[in-house]
What does this fold into?
Amino acid sequence: QVQLVESGGGLVQPGGSLRLSCAASGFHFDSAVMGWYRQTPGKERDWVAIIGLSAGSIKYIDSVKGRFTISRDNAKKTVYLQMNSLRPEDTATYYCRGAGVWGQGTQVTVSS
It folds into this structure.
């Protein structure tokens, strides 16, 4: 059974940091492109960061470049999203995607 489980969300003040984790199971993780997406109420789910099979295959949306870092640990079958210098506009539910499935999402709220 293909499964993705996110963790690490929470409430943080502007300028703070969070690290999201996505633990994968049920598929060949080391051969899967993985991504982080986010969604706010009433809006479409948008991609945030994508990581391919190597560290050189990474893309970010412009609004998070220089603040967010996506990485993967194939031995642990986990993909991470390190989020620094968080802004209120980063508030959203963050989802992990890979192997054609979505995780359940984790809420990130940036507020003072």
Q: What stands out?
A: The chain has a mean pLDDT of 96. The chain has no helices and eleven strands. The radius of gyration is 13 Å.
